[in-house]
Amino acid sequence: MKAVLDITRLLRRSGQHTPTGIDRVELAYARHLLESHEYEGRAAFVARLRATTWYLDASTVSAFIDTLALRWKLSEARVTKRELFAIERFLGQPTGSLANLEPPSTPRSALPDVLPPLRRLLSPLNLLPRLLRRRHADGAVYLNVSHEGLNSVSGVRSLARGQRMKPMFLVHDLIPLTHPEYVRPGDAEKHEMRMRTVLSSANAVVCNSRNTLNELNAFAERLRLSVPQTVVSPLGIEDEFQGGEMESVPTHPFFLTIGTIEPRKNHLVLLHAWRVLVEKLGPKAPKLIIVGRRGWENENVVDIIERCRKLGDHVLECNRLPDAHLRWLMRQSRAVLFPSFAEGFGLPLFEALALRVPVICSELEVFRDIAGDAPRYLDPIDGLGWARTIEEYASPNAEDRAAQLAKLARLSVPRWRDHFSVIDRLIDCVAEPSFKPSPKLASFPVSMPAPEPSVGRRTAPSFERSSSLIFAGERSLEPAGSTSFCTAQPHSSMR
C-alpha cells in the first residue's frame, strides 16, 4: 500500500517553539510512516505551497522530522529551577522534588536549528520533478490529518484526480460549527467549508471519537450530504504516560487543571469554587495549579488570578511545564479538573487516566465517549457542586475518589500503536483498486480499542507572559514590551 502524507502544517509551524495538539498528531503520523516497515519504500510526503503541490524526498523529510521533534521536545522543557522551586514552595514539597527530575533545560541558543534541514527539504534537488509525481502518487492514499488546505473542494478534488490519489481525512472536531461563540469571527464559515470538502472528496474519514462522528453525521444530514466510509479511532498517547506506583501523599492537598486559558475551558467556575473553599476552610483549603498558556478573551479570569488576594496562597498559574514535571504533579494531585464547556477530544484527560489519576470533568458527551464512567462528572456551570466535590476529593479518606481509583486500575488506554493499527488497515482497504467509498455512514470492521482518549491545545493570537508563574492576587507589573506573540487555534481541543 502507498501513502502520501500532507505535511504542509508541519512546514508552516516549524518556526514555532512549541507544538499544538494538531501539530503533535501530524508529527506522529509522519514518524509512523517513516519508521514502519509496512511503508518502507511506499511512503511519500507532499506540501502545498503557493498553490502548488510539491513532492518531498522521504530521506530528507526524515531528517527534518527528527530535528523538529527534538527541537519541540527541548523547547517544552525550558523551565528554570527558580520556577520549579516556586512550585515546590507553593505545595510545601521538599526542595528538589521537581527540579531534580530532569537535567537542566537546554539554552535557547543550543536548540537544534530546523532551518538547515528545512532548506534541504525545499531545495530544487529534493523536490521531486513533475515527471516523477505520478509514479509516487498513482493509486496512493492521500492523508490529511490537520484540516490544512481544506478550504477548497475543487482544489482537493483536482489534487486527487490529477495525481490519481484517494483522499483520506482525520476530523478532529466540529467546535466552530457547534459552538461558534468560542472561536474567532469567520472561523465557523471556514470550518464549514473544510467539512464540506471532507464529505465531498473523501474516500474515507477517520474521527477521533464517536462524538465527533455523531457531529459530522449531523452536519452532513443538515446539509443533505452523504458521509463516506468512516472509522472511529481514538488518538494515542505517549508511552511515558502510564500508571505506576502511587506517589507519596503531599502534606497539603492540591488539584491540577490543564488547558489554555480561554472561555471554552471554563476556568472561571474553578476560581469561584476556590473562593468558596477558601472562605469556608481558610488555610486548610486545597490548592490549585493552573497549567496552560493564556489564550484569548480571558480578561475576567486573568483579573481574578492577578487581583484576588484571597486566592493568593491557594492558586498558582503556570503557563509552561515539561511533560516529566507535569506527570509528577498529576500523580501527586488529588485529581485533575476539566470543567470545559466544549471539547473535541481532551488529550490531557486521557493522559491523566493513563497515569491512574482521578479526574473530575464536565458532563460532556465526548468525555463520556472516551472515558466511560471512570471520571466524576459535573455540570460545568454548577459552581457549588464543583466546590463540594473538590472538598470531598481533598479528604484523605474520600470514598468517591477511592472508587474511581479502583475503576482506573482496570482501564485500558489506547496508545499510538493502537491508533495506527486501525489506520493501517483502513489505508490498506482504501488503497485496494476495487474500493468504493460507501454512500452512507459506516464503521470500519476492526476490533476497536477500549473507549478512552484525548489531545489539545492552544489559542488565538494572544500573549504569553515572560514569567511563567503567577500567584493569585499578584498583579503583573511587567512592561508592555515583555510579552511575546504567538498563534494557535482557538477551537483546537488539544493541550
From TrEMBL:
<feature type="compositionally biased region" description="Polar residues">
    <location>
        <begin position="481"/>
        <end position="495"/>
    </location>
</feature>
<protein>
    <submittedName>
        <fullName>Glycosyltransferase family 4 protein</fullName>
    </submittedName>
</protein>
<dbReference type="InterPro" id="IPR001296">
    <property type="entry name" value="Glyco_trans_1"/>
</dbReference>
<feature type="region of interest" description="Disordered">
    <location>
        <begin position="442"/>
        <end position="462"/>
    </location>
</feature>
<feature type="domain" description="Glycosyl transferase family 1">
    <location>
        <begin position="250"/>
        <end position="374"/>
    </location>
</feature>
<dbReference type="Pfam" id="PF00534">
    <property type="entry name" value="Glycos_transf_1"/>
</dbReference>
<feature type="region of interest" description="Disordered">
    <location>
        <begin position="474"/>
        <end position="495"/>
    </location>
</feature>
